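To whoever is on call:

I kicked off a structure prediction for a single chain this morning and the downstream step that reads the tokens threw a length-mismatch warning. I double-checked the sequence; it's 413 residues and nothing unusual in it as far as I can see. Pasting both halves so you can look.
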Amino acid sequence: MKYYLIAGEASGDLHASHLIAALKAEDAQAEFRGFGGDLMAAQGMTLVRHYRDLAYMGIIPVLLHARTILHGMQQCKADIVAWQPHVLILVDYPGFNLKMAKFAHSIGICPVYYYIAPKLWAWKEYRIKALKRDVDELFSILPFEVDFFEKKHGYPIHYVGNPTMDEVEAYRPPVAPRRGANARANIPSVTSAPGTTPPAGGPQGALPPTTSQGALLPLIALLPGSRRQEIRDNLSRMLVAVEPYREHYRIVIAAAPGIEPDYYQSVLQSLPNWQEADAPAFQTDTYALLSCATAALVTSGTATLETALFRVPQVVCYYMRAGRLASLGRRLILKIPYISLVNLVAGTEVVPELVAEQMNVANLRRHLTAILPGSKQREAMLQGYEEVARRLGAPGAPKRAAQLIVRLLKERQ
């Protein structure tokens, strides 16, 4: 069968790539085409357009690039019609994908399946009408979505488990490394801090990779997001917040795919206390980073769940301009008590969330100190992570989704 997939960001590319692999195992004649990223292409999908060409967030960037986005939509519609797939599989990315669902439904070209349901429970709940009208089957990866879609809106869905469980389990070594044992060889980096201790008189608090006795320093991970503006806003504050910890911790930044190293360097150059002599390392493999991190500062998103499943205590943070106004808007618009997937899955506050005006240097430092080794908050958070993993269920989400997709398509035929 012919499968057309659309994913619009790095996490969607990752999840869709594993779904493609699972579909190939279920359907030996499977063909794949669509919009996505490098990981989907690596699984054999013909990549019509890369998601980075259309990855704009926020009102102003979207307006400035409206022509590019509209052209991308037209290109996608024309390609679907030309290729005549047996199914259109949408992966998150609701602003674009719900329009593609409406188009496919209106011309009746193929059934529409949605893998990783749009987060209507957070905001824009009115979209449920379009979802019920245009999407034939919905595959959920968050357990609390069952009540939202089925009980509240009478829309039957398939909960298949969470693919992040599979991705973390597949990466995790048989014996977890000791936290802090992050040898330089185990942290391949885009740009690394120098390997020698800066001479006397160098930058205050400069961080060597080892102590004077040669012991490896433990590691604090910074995960500032995947889009340029959120990286600039969050990373600059994260770096200032962790300055006092440089003597005892190595600081490593998770570099997002598709973001050039020069962009991160521009953030560093804007901060007087992070100069070349003691710059942090940049890690392109987030899982390698999390597998040996002691603690993390994490911008809200899938990364918060990944961090929890690696059992790394974290502070969730997301800067918004006009912070007080943004907080008011959040209370008026958002329908949920938390922004992090960790707390939403747990149904209680497992990790602290610093959003809008609360996301400042003083709060970041205070909460980071509270989750470093030896603290009660750290142990309580780790216990909370176990409950999150239990609620998500066993690994196997891509396989379960693929089996359902193939079975449902065969039943339609």
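Update from on-call: the warning came from a stale cache, not from the record. Cleared it. Sanity check on the structure: The radius of gyration is 22 Å.
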